[in-house]
Amino acid sequence: MKYDVIIIGAGPGGIFSAYELVKGNSNLKVAVMEMGNPLEKRKCPIDGEKIKTCINCKHCSIMSGFGGAGAFSDGKYNITNDFGGTLCEYIGQETAIKLMQYVDDINMTHGGEGTKLYTTAGSNISKLCMQNKLKLLNASVRHLGTDKNYVVLQNLYAELKDKVDFHFLSPVKTIEKLENGYKVVTEKDTYECIKCIVSVGRSGSKWVEDVCRDLEIETQSNRVDIGVRVELPAQIFSHLTDSLYESKIVYRTEKFEDNVRTFCMNPYGRVVNENTNGIITVNGHSFEDPAQRTQNTNFALLVSKHFSEPFKDSNGYGESIARLSNMLGGGVIVQRFGDLVRGRRSNRKRIAESFCIPTLKAEPGDLSLVLPKRILDGIIEMIYALDRVAPGTANDDTLLYGVEVKFYNMEVKVDEHLETKHKGLYMIGDGSGVTHSLSHASASGVFVARDILSQIN
Question: Is the distance from CB of 76 to CB of 141 less than 8 angstroms?
Answer without folding.
Answer: yes
